[in-house]
Amino acid sequence: MEFNKNQIEKANINSNFNFPKLVKELKEIGVTNFKTFVSNGLTEYFDQNNEQISFDGINNFSISDQLNVAKFEERLKLHQQGGTDFLTFCKDCAENGVDNWVVDLQKMTCTYFDKKGNSVLVEKIPSI
Predict the structure, then answer these.
(1) Which of 32, 43, 75, 86 is the most exposed place for a label (fewest CB within 10 A)?
(2) CB of 100 within 8 A of CB of 42?
(3) pLDDT tens across 83-102, in order?
(4) 115 Cβ contact list (under 8 Å, min separation 6)
């Protein structure tokens, strides 16, 4: 394992809620991708050997069966502009049918998925 829980926590704190900065810091410590589950907030961080470290979340959301991509994109944009906190964003994801997302630090993408595992939206992560 190339990284540890303390390094991930430090990257989260240092990024000060700036997602591109967080991605940069995680990449520097050897994280290759991570997956966050909306329903419970669990996040799994992986290295190049597919070894993982998990962090339990505090969420308790039921994911809607009704996917609303337009409303999700609207709420995502608001979140990216600093208009919501992480917990509110997760609630918005759940209400609009987004089950989880995967951040690929090699491709520099964030992909959102519905409950059936279908890709809902793929975003390119800006460099800093």
Answers:
(1) 86
(2) no
(3) 999 899 999 999 999 999 99
(4) 63, 65, 97, 99
Q: Say how far apart CA 100 and CA 94 lie, in whole Å.
A: 9
pTM over 0.90? The answer is yes
Set out the domains of the chain in order of their start, with CATH numbers.
Answer: 5-124 (3.30.1810.10)
Reading across the β-sheet that carries 52-55, which strands appear in turn? 52-55, 43-46, 33-37, 100-104, 109-113, 119-124
Do the beta carbons of residue 34 and residue 45 sit within 8 Å? yes
| Residues 38-54 pLDDT 10s | 999 999 999 999 999 99
Could you give the CA distance from residue 12 to residue 28 in angstroms, rounded to a whole number?
A: 13
